[in-house]
Amino acid sequence: MSAHSITAATSRAKWVAGTLVILYAVITMIPLAWILMTGFKSPSDAISYPPKVVFEPTLEGYVNLFTTRTRQTEEFLAANPPENWADEIVRQYDMVIVGPSKFGERFLNSVIIGFGSTFLSIFLGTLAAYAFSRFRIPLADDLLFFILSTRMMPPIAVAIPIFLMYRELGLSDTHLGMILLYTAVNISLAVWLLKGFIDEIPREYEEAALIDGYTRFQAFYKVVLPQAATGIASTAIFCLIFAWNEYAFAVLLTSATAQTAPPFIPTIIGIGGLDWPAVAAGATIFLLPVMIFTILLRKHLLRGITFGAVRK
Amino acid sequence: MSSTPIDRVAQATPKKVARRIKGLSDRAIAWIFVAPTIFLLLAINIFPLIWTIQLSFTNYRANRLNREVENIGLRNYERILTDSDIWLNMQATAHFLFWTITLQVLIGFTLAWLIHRNFKGNAFWTTVIVLPMMLSPAVVGNFWKFLYQPQIGLFNYIVSFFTGRDPSSFQMLGDVDLAPWSIVIVDTWMWTPFVMLICLAGLRSIPDYIYEAAEIDRASKFRQFWTITVPMVLPFLMLAVLFRGIENFKMFDLVVQLTGGGPGSTTELTSINLKREAFEKWRTGYASAYAIILFVTVFGLASIYVKALNKVKER
Q: Any keyword Transmembrane helix (chain B) (predicted)?
């Protein structure tokens, strides 16, 4: 676009547009900023009226998130001085830290299931996408549509038979069960996105490699994979985000051992109801990695959320 | 087939040698590569779907293992389709779908239209706006419950700041009239950026020369908007609506955390109702029939819609 283009916006139009967009962005950020702030509030500041924007920051929420505490008698508290700064924080409520909370475990489950299912979806998805992209597969379009249509089922509808099946197979509340399930859900996204990325790699590269004496598999491994690395990485992040955020299957199919963070965070109870600073602290820790990934992904975002239908 | 150089080389090479050079045949590789995916989907999607269909004709209850399972034919389907409560859930879902999509299309398109002015720093602000959409709906929904609290909640406080109403005089989540809107607001907050991104791609796909030609023909800006911009963005917009429609028809996590379907059943969307039937009342057979009805509905509506979308694209 040249500087004198008749289609370019005037500087005043740009200024108005910019102001409105920034206004929207600021409004949209308020809830997220509030989560971040609440995590550093004391329980009484968190529920004060009017809501406090300026407050004295404390790590209470984070301490409550990671620990379990019990109330103790004054004699006990006097006899055992606080061991560290975290202990000191809970002492103001006549409590002592007795051990870690379940949050660490739940978070770790999210990591294991998220990365496990992402690895598996990418592994299977890359192979399938390569085959769909390069070979003539009978009924390829129907198969691809079938793969996509598995996403249209409401998760609860899928969960009914999965629940029964996992109960028979002993996969209920196991990491393996959740990894397989999330892989099955993510694979449609992986195949569709990766096929798009591989379609963009010129066939000539592989053909040259094949003529040089590579086998088809070597050509795939040594020529196509490195070329598709960016596409594979961004697809992997999308799969990871989905598995990370998933709630419906997690709440229905996991409880004690394999429960992930999303069903756990809303259940953090403090004195007299939900412990909002601890909930906010958990949410902050849980949401932050996704925000960072989103920023890294911004160039491929559109492609990811539309299953490759819009490529920009 | 034989147009690629490698096929020509392959044809010119004796069979045995060709096999050694190429390793497995392409066909074998194709199947080895595709089979695991198809197998996984058959095991975790199709087999369960068939099982659901089979269960939907029975009175099976997953919490009573010793009870005899009877085949009751189409009774489950009959009961669901004549149940007035389920029509209320459908209405709640329709209200949610209609308003979320309308608001997201209006706000999303406007934002995209503004960002397309290419003001300074638009890329940065676009990334900021997009953030909510990638977050966990359950965790975010749970936190919005806090924002919606009367008295202490930030949402009520902001509303009262601008309208002067007492912040404890209304309950977004507890009021029968307001609760359906509370879920529309959060979903719109979360997913407007999705529509915006797709519209932006649509706007950017319109070549400048079309506007230049219109300018030379002295078409007004208003006319350019309705005869160039809107028709050319429409296929993109329709795609966005398709995605949002399917996703919101399945909506569960966000709303369950916000309202749990209440008060009463005013925000009990079909997925939440289905969960109650299947995992709280344990009417597995009945819930299976319900699931099949929902699936057929989404699938049917989506197919009709895709046909319409393709027609628009062809134009």
A: yes
Q: Which of A247, A251, A284 to mutate to test the interface with B (most CBs of B within 10 A)?
A: A247
Degrees to nearest 5, angle at CA A290 with B145 and A56: 55
CB-CB neighbors (< 8 A) of A194 in chain B: none
Tokens of B258: 């916000």
Give pLDDT, residue B15.
53
Q: Which residues of chain A have pLDDT under 50?
A: 1-3
What number is the ipTM of this complex?
A: 0.89
CB A278 within 8 A of CB B146: no
Q: Which pLDDT tens digit goes with each residue over A154-175?
A: 888 889 999 999 999 999 999 9
Among the listed residues A103, A38, A67, A96, the one whose alpha carbon sits nearest the alpha carbon of residue A262: A103
User: What are the sequence ranges of the domains in chain B?
Assistant: 5-55, 80-314
- Chain A residue whose CA is closest to B63: A164
Q: Which CATH number fits domain B80-314: 1.10.3720.10, 1.10.287.380, 1.10.1040.10, 3.10.340.11?
A: 1.10.3720.10
* Residue A113 in contact with partner chain B when CB distance is under 8 A: no
> Residue A289's closest chain B neighbor by CA?
B135
The verdict on a CB contact (< 8 Å) between A302 and B132 is no
Element (H, E) at B2: none
Of B43, B194, B236, which has the smallest distance from its Cβ to A305's Cβ?
B194
- The size of the A-B interface in CB pairs under 8 A is 314
Its pTM stands at 0.89
Q: Are B175 and B150 in contact (CB under 8 A)?
A: no
Q: Cα–Cα distance between B78 and B85 in angstroms, integer? A: 14
Integer Cα distance of A300 and A239 in angstroms: 13
pLDDT along chain B (315 residues), means of 10: 51 51 74 92 89 92 81 90 89 95 97 91 91 92 90 88 86 91 96 94 91 90 91 92 92 92 89 92 92 90 88 80
Q: Write the pLDDT tens digit of every residue in B186-203.
A: 999 999 999 999 999 999
- The pLDDT of residue A114 is 95
A176 to chain B, any CB pair closer than 8 A? The answer is no
pLDDT at B302: 87
Nearest to A211 among B6, B29, B288 (CB): B6
Domain spanning A104-305: which CATH class is it, in words? mainly alpha
Tokens encoding B7: 């096929």
In this predicted structure, what is the pLDDT of residue B1?
Answer: 39
pLDDT value of position A50 = 82
| CA proximity to A41, closest of B146, B50, B212, B157 | B146
A residues 187-206 lying closer than 8 A (beta carbon) to B: 187, 191, 203
| DSSP secondary structure code for residue A270 in this structure | E
| Rounded distance between C-alpha atoms, residue B176 and residue B159, angstroms | 18
Q: Which pLDDT does position B8 carry in this prediction?
A: 56
Residue A99 CA, chain-centre distance (Å), reads 28
> Scanning every residue of chain B, which has its alpha carbon at the shortest distance from the alpha carbon of A149?
B299
Contact (CB, 8 A) for A48 and A62: no
Per domain, the residue ranges of chain A are 43-101, 104-305
Q: Which residue of B has its CA nearest to A135?
A: B30
d(CA B284, CA B228): 52
Of the candidates B33, B41, B135, which has its C-beta nearest A184's C-beta? B41
